[in-house]
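Open question from group meeting: does this chain pack into something compact, or does most of it stay loose? Before anyone orders reagents, we agreed to write out a predicted structure and look at it together. Recording both the input and the output here so the notebook holds the full record.
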Amino acid sequence: MKRMKGWMAVIVFSANLMMATSATADLIYNNMGTSGAAYSLTGGVAVYGNSTYQAAAVAFTPSGSFTLSQLTVPLKLWDTAYVADSRVDLVTDSSGKPGTSVLESWIITSLSPPTAPAFYLQTFTSTGSTQLLSGTKYWVEITPTDTTTSFPWTKILWLVSTVSTVESGNFATKSPSSGTWTIVSNGNNVPGLTVEGTPVPIPAAAWLLGSGLVGLVGLRRRFKK
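Structure tokens returned:
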């Protein structure tokens, strides 16, 4: 009976460890400092939707496996004469550039004007089913949804981080003239981005739980004999 109680304690501990691990949201990626808000109020990458529209993307690579919780991006309307119609996509990587497989998507229909800096940080909440794998590269891209030449067209500014960290190969842009993504090497001027998620239960906790269950089955068979 004492052995059985010991195994039960292991199982309960393992289950609690797994639940605690999966319930805590972690910062997966952040290029905007410890405050998560170190970005320029004026400098950024224009995403605009006329005949020469430009899309932009920033990459990140999780150091563990997570379920995506949310993305936070500093965005503002270029000018009140324009519209904010655009789309934020989380996509897979393809040979070091944004791929075509969309994991999750969000639509932007309005943004704060240039005179409202307190509202530039935009949060995009996940459905809670998108899995991010450890060591796998992903891209967050912003693309105008209205690419016609009719005015007013989309014109927003993806504000850049002010943290002095050069991230080689993690920033790309795309225009209709090329039709492909181009990696941009522009020093510290990388658009701001934070990514948060819930850690996937660690293998050790799963192993402990499995071991406890196996031990419990063995004890039950021994008692039956």
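Observations to bring back to the group:
The chain has one domain: 25-200.
The first helix runs from residue 2 to 23.
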